[in-house]
Design a protein that fits this description.
Elements (H helix, E strand, L loop, with lengths): L15 E5 L6 E2 L2 E2 L3 H4 L2 H9 L3 E5 L19 H8 L3 E4 L10 E4 L6 H4 L3 H8 L4 E4 L21 E3 L1 H15 L5 E5 L8 H8 L4 E4 L1 H10 L14 H14 L2 E3 L3 E5 L8 E5 L8 E5 L1 H12 L3 E5 L12 H15 L4 E5 L1 H10 L7 E3 L3 H7 L5 H4 L4
Parallel strand pairs: 1-4, 1-7, 4-6, 5-6, 7-8, 9-10, 9-15, 10-11, 15-16, 16-17
Antiparallel strand pairs: 2-3, 12-13, 12-14
Helix pairs in contact: 8-9, 10-11, 11-12
């Protein structure tokens, strides 16, 4: 899709940009414990400053549900953000005069009930803070809120630097990708990613299913999965997805060998065996080494990879083997320039960090719900509002 960028807003000298950002950072004892999302704000604030403008930032924190909750104020974020940006950062509440700082953080947008209702009157109050609007929070783009959708109708609007990079990466991954395309979808439950699977089957050439989800598909195909996590009530749904993939020409890959244990804990006594040799009482906790070899070969034959979810119980050694090994295989191809690699989702980011390959992937999205809804093929209101 074509969307406006900051450069399309023209000369911003003397103007104020109202920027929707993601400041929903983890806090410990009232202090920011991870500044990743704060650092993602810097490129857009710098771009606005370079164009002659100043920035007023809109963001939410937690879920105050339209009430003022002191513990969910954005005020504690301000000094840390100032250090990250290397600029003077002020703080203001809606309705009060803005301080004269280079950057101003407005109080939690979700203190207002109208925020999550996409209220046009609240959006008008947000719009009155500046001359142009920039959305730089892809993580909130799947919600039509006053600060993400309604406001974009009231001011000249554009995607920020971080949002723009995200949208370009996603377009290259599934919008108009280089083929063949392979998707890795893992995690515990098919039910949580049913729409993702149904959408991907029609868009990718290879679909690798891992984690507990793979157990449900193996069960549907008639394999004994012992005491493994499995959604047996979704047998017919799994068979439908397999049939649809076969009809369209999408190859679905399930584990050929698995790592089993009798206890769900780190370093539990385990055994690797053929996927169809699991017996009563055994739990499948990871894919086996033969599966990883087969899947690494699949990656070598592809040009684009989309990844969401781990291959096994990666939080517990040694059941992180398949996730780590496959991630390293993808990273090697990405470093060589032969595979465009896009990944997203909380567990996925954690898994790739655990594997030590975050810097090798072409793009890693920290968005959770927005990334999943994009994989489901849904229109994201916050993105649609920025279309040219």
């Amino acid at each position: 899709m074509a969307f406006n960028r900051i450069s399309d807003l023209g000369d911003l000298t003397g103007k104020t940009a109202v920027i929707r950002v993601d400041l929903n950072v983890p806090m410990v004892d009232g202090k920011v414990s991870d500044d990743t999302r704060l650092r993602a704000v810097k490129p857009t604030v710098d771009a606005v400053a370079a164009a002659g403008g100043r920035s007023v930032l809109l963001a939410h924190f937690g879920r105050p549900k339209g009430q003022v909750v002191a513990e969910m104020s954005l005020k504690p974020v301000v000094p840390v953000l100032a250090d990250v940006l290397g600029r003077s950062v002020g703080f203001a509440e809606l309705g009060s005069d803005l301080p004269g700082n280079d950057v101003v953080v407005m109080e939690n947008t979700r203190y207002f009930a109208g925020e999550e209702k996409n209220d046009p009157e609240l959006a008008a109050k947000f719009a009155a803070l500046g001359d142009v609007y920039i959305n730089d929070a892809f993580s909130t783009a799947h919600r039509a809120h006053a600060s993400t959708e309604a406001i974009a109708k009231l001011l000249p609007s554009a995607a920020g630097e971080t949002m723009g990079a995200e949208l370009e990466a996603l377009e290259n991954a599934l919008g108009s990708p280089k083929k063949p395309v392979v998707a890795v979808v893992g995690g515990a439950k098919v039910s949580s990613k049913l729409a993702v699977l149904e959408n991907l089957v029609a868009k990718v050439d290879h679909l690798i299913i891992g984690g507990g989800m793979a157990n449900t598909f193996m069960y549907a195909k008639g394999s004994d999965i012992g005491a493994s996590l499995c959604e047996k009530d979704l047998k017919d749904t799994a068979l439908m997805i397999l049939a649809k993939a076969d009809e369209i020409g999408c190859t679905i890959h399930l584990p050929s060998d698995v790592v089993v244990a009798h206890e769900f804990k780190a370093h539990a006594e385990n055994e690797t065996k053929a996927a169809d040799a699991v017996i009563e009482g055994e739990m499948i906790l990871d894919a086996g080494s033969a599966t990883v070899e087969e899947l690494a070969f699949v990656l070598e034959g592809c040009k684009t990879l989309v990844w969401n979810g781990p291959m096994g119980a990666f939080e517990m050694e040694p059941f992180d083997m398949a996730t780590v090994a496959l991630a390293k295989a993808a990273a090697k191809l990405s470093d060589a320039g032969s595979l465009l690699t896009v990944a997203g989702g909380g567990d996925t980011v954690a898994a790739l960090a655990h594997a030590g390959v975050k810097n090798s992937f072409t793009h890693i999205s920290t968005a959770g719900g927005a990334f999943l809804e994009w994989m489901e093929g849904k229109v994201l209101p916050g993105v649609a509002a920025l279309e040219k």
